[in-house]
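Bench notes, afternoon.
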Amino acid sequence: MRILVVEDERELADILRRGLTAEGYSVDVAHDGRQGLEQARFDEYAAIVLDLMLPRLNGFQVCATLRREGNTTPILILTAKDGDYDQIESLDTGADDYLAKPFSYPVLVARLRALLRRGPATLGRVLTVGDLAIDSVARTCHRAGTAVALTPREFGILELLARQPGVPRTKSEILHHVWPDVVEDPNLVEARISALRRKVDAAFGRASLQTVRGIGYRLIDDRPA
């Protein structure tokens, strides 16, 4: 599940990107309002974390423009402007929630999860490949109704593969999705794939997570015909 963070404080943006990536999300970052607006227009995101005090276009303008254009992606305002009128204007321009800086990171994550549960992005939130079900919002996995405990990294890989069943994903794609800050290291992917196979396949006598020689990995419906 992809999150867009629009924040001009680069240190804070990096902290958010690292933290949300560790939670299993795929995170893109924009450092000004114009860039954030263009990314939100042309890429599909589950939610947007939006600062108000941005160069080029402020957060109010970004939010209002997206809503005017029919974009219904949930928007969480994250800003140092904590006056009542700032909150009112944010909500009136179409934001879904508002969190003032300084903020508690666990509260941010909880509010983001709440937005994802109730927002438009919850449509199609459960990805199914055969009897494997991956809930992108609740961050849960089930095989034939049995819960499978996954780490955030394992979940991120499985979610990526489940979005396009049968389509091979390269190790580089998986690294960029799950470890965006790590220098190319295929061993990271191989170790997590091995762990996933033990949990979602071997434990159930299945083989849905396949190696595609010379390319990478794919997830298929391996149930008997």
